[in-house]
Amino acid sequence: MSLPYKIILVPVDGSEASIKALDRAIELTKFYSSKLIIAHVIDVRSYSLAIAYREPLEQYAEDNAKKILTDAENRAKEAGLTDIATVKKEGSPRSVIAKKIAPEVNADLIVMGATGYGMVERMFVGSVSESTVRHSHCDIMIVR
User: Fold this and answer.
1) How high is the pLDDT of residue 85?
2) Can you give the residue ranges of the UspA domain (predicted)?
3) 3 and 31 in contact (C-beta within 8 Å)?
4) 8-state DSSP, 84
5) Who contacts 98 (Cβ-Cβ below 8 Å, separation ≥6)?
6) DSSP secondary structure letters along 10-72
7) Model confidence, pTM
8) What burial class does residue 37 get, using C-beta atoms within 10 Å of its C-beta: 0-12 exposed, 13-18 middle, 19+ buried?
9) Would you say 71 and 22 are in contact if contact means Cβ atoms under 8 Å apart?
C-alpha cells in the first residue's frame, strides 16, 4: 500500500541540506504524481535588530528569497515537474513552516533538510527541522 501524498511541501533556504531535500521531494513528487510546494521563510529576526540598515536588509532578504525560490522552481521544472507552486512568508522558520504554511497548502508530507543555515540558533533553541517535527500535523521526512 502506498501513501497518497497529494501535496508535498519542501522548505528551502539555499543551503546544501535544503537542496538535497528539494531533490528528494522532486523524486517523491514524481513517484506519487503529487503537487510540489516550494517554500521559503524570510527570518525577520535576522535583520530586525539592524535598525539603521533595515530597508537595505529587508530588500536583500526579499531579493534573496526570490532567487532561492526561482532557483528551486527551475530545478524542479528541469526534473520534469509541472505542478509546482512557491510560497514565501516572513517570520520564524521554526514556527511558520509547520503552523502556517503546511496547513495553508494542506501538505500531506514535508520534506526538509536535517540542517540549514540556522546553526547558531540551533545551538540555543533547536533546529528548524526539530521544531517542524514537534508541531506539524502531517508526515515529515528529514533528509540527511
Assistant:
1) 98
2) 5-144
3) no
4) E
5) 110, 131, 132, 134, 135, 136, 137
6) EE--SSHHHHHHHHHHHHHHHHHT-EEEEEEEE-THHHHT-GGGHHHHHHHHHHHHHHHHHHH
7) 0.86
8) buried
9) no
